[in-house]
Amino acid sequence: MFSLKPPRPTFRSYLLPPPQTDDMINSEPKIKRLEPVLLPGEIVVNEVNFVRKCIATDTSQYDLWGKLICSNFKISFVTDNPMPLQKFHYRNLLLGEHDVPLTCIEQIVTINDHKRKQKVLGPNQKLKFNPTELIIYCKDFRIVRFRFDESGPESAKKVCLAIAHYSQPTDLQLLFAFEYVGKKYHNSAHEVNGVPTGAGSAAGGGSSQKTPLFETYSDWDREVKRTGASGWRVCSINEGYMISTCLPEYFVVPSSLADQDLKTFSHSFVGRRMPVWCWSHSNGSALVRMALVKDALQQRKIDQRICNAVTKSHPQRSDVYKSDLDKTLPNIQETQAAFVKLKQLCVNEPFEETEEKWLSSLEGTRWLEYVRAFLRHSAELVYMLESKRVSVVLQEEEGRDLSCVVASLVQVMLDPYFRTITGFQSLIQKEWVMAGYPFLDRCNHLKRSEKESPLFPLFLDATWQLLEQYPAAFEFSETYLAVLGDSTHISLFGTFLFNSPHQRVTQSTEFAISKNIQLGDEKGLKFPSVWDWSLQFTAKDRTLFHNPLYIGKSTPCVHNGSVKSFKRTKKLYSSTLRGLPASLENGALRDQELFPRRSSLTLKGKPDPPQQAGGRDSGVERYFREWFSRPADLHGALLPHLSGPHVKLWKLCYFRWVPEAQISRGGFITTFHRLSLLADELDVLSRTLRQPRAGSLEACFSDLEPSRMYFRARGPHDTAGTPDFLSSSFPFSPVGNLCRRSILGTPLSKFLSGAKIWLSTETLANED
After folding, report:
1. Three-state secondary-structure class, residue 276
2. Which of 99, 336, 594, 732 is 20 to 30 A distant from 24 in Cα terms?
3. Measuring CA to CA, how many Å separate 288 from each of 269, 278, 279, 443, 729?
4. Do residues 409 and 463 make contact, with C-beta atoms less than 8 angstroms apart?
5. Alpha-helical segments (H) within 543-694
6. pLDDT by residue (tens digit) across 81-131?
């Protein structure tokens, strides 16, 4: 019988390539078939196959094989392999598991192992060697690493050059948001302004409330009425940006100032940023911000006229207190230097075995010192507004950087509405987006580093400090704050893309004309708003934005046919949320705490500027002393604790991408998990009380009605343990980012686990 097997070849060629096995034949098309998910307007500009994504530095057994793709929106690594060591992933609907937006890239480093060369790639630069490794440093503290050992050398070089070119555009209209919106306008006849209905107005976490964008007269008018501001009016003299290109079309001014007066005064201010209203206290005092007067000869006359107008808007005709932020707070260059040092410490530097170097390096960054400085000054202005009952005018050279932070922090401390999700979003929209904070320059979307500054991350950090100190006073969680910060690096939302509303209108109109897009009566293209969180996260994932500790206003329930309210007295929670620490005296650091131990996170504060005469020091101290001696009113004013142990490093934000810093089934998330179960159980019981015929409790818990909590109770008195996928970095996963050697057992590891790191070095060294 003849064999069905082909005869074995007896001749071996050394000129032809080796014969391919079935595995080799099947593997290549499999990788090449991998394609990324593209958004409207997104195109692939370059790609390379057989790329290895490094998961760990000490071994390659967990590395992933796939295709590296560069588009005009992101770099995407596509693979069929599941992520090793990862038990949970918080998925962004706009990005894949391994995707990095181009505007999130901070630095690109190419390496050739054989020639021992490396180069930081900039735009329009040449690469004289074929890279064997690519390292991406991201603005959100991530480090991503790829290897090209099996890739074509020319293909690897081309994809590296493409990433460098498209991640560092030279023109605003080259950012992906323009292509995305342009595509939507051309292809979506059933959408409103080229954007899905509801985009840009929905609040986070599934709330039905809408976030006001303050683009219309009515939004400002509602805010004036909400605060009860008498003596103030909405002004429309800047319609079409005829007066100032860095102010919104509508803003609020003293009623005693006529439009003609405003037009006359506007020429005297830097950027024509005349005094504009921010917020009013119930006692009539107002918060105002303005730029400096350019003409020194006219300064006293104009200042006097403005102060008189603000005084007339006060019911008691109280005096005006002016705060010169340029002389009081660190400038944008100082905050940028501190942030760069912090990133270097948390991301680039290897963790040291000794505590002293790391903690003294943290102190040397001055980041926590600057966070404390902004909190302290904002608290002093709270005293002026609430206790002294005088209006406050924030003065800054351009009036669009430091004043954004201070004005926002003051309102968060004084108005409980801004501690809700919708209120906080409206605050950012009002005091940052519409007030002309230069997001384009400060976020460095166009890689002009001389204008970069992390004032918005500093504001989020300061807000987190308040959330950490008064968790029951905030509706949102720290996950919400971290995700909000990440959204500034996604070049899709118009919220954080421009230097001013005027720039959005002019640039988008110019783009529309070049693309033959008919705008009609619209003022420029309508970009998606970051406040439509449904574009990024599912309804289930958005529930992580909710803080289970939040104590909202009383809710009505039905009891025996009558409506009653659950009222929480202050005694139920105030003693556990706030007390006067021994280290805090009158809301400020004691003298002996201004010089902390070297091995401590207690950072000394920047010396305060000389205070004005008139007993203001004693008044501030008395106000702080009385305030801290009373029980906390979670729906009233909040003052920050300023002593060293209370101003902390935001671990979730700065350490979430470091695998070695993870605490498996540990960290605050374990408390968050238990509190979420308890809050969900209370929600179910509340719904049961409102429906007398709801049936048994077990039936209510089995109901699949959406919950406001991410973690749901499975029944009454749920005693489920901590899930295995929880870690201190939850809901973010550090797996797949560049790793460093372990810190287990070091003092830093104890700090991450919650050790009292302000103790001495000897105490920590002897601690088990």
Report:
1. strand
2. 99
3. 15, 5, 7, 26, 39
4. yes
5. 574-577, 616-629, 651-655, 668-690
6. 776 655 566 789 999 889 999 999 999 999 998 888 889 998 878 899 999
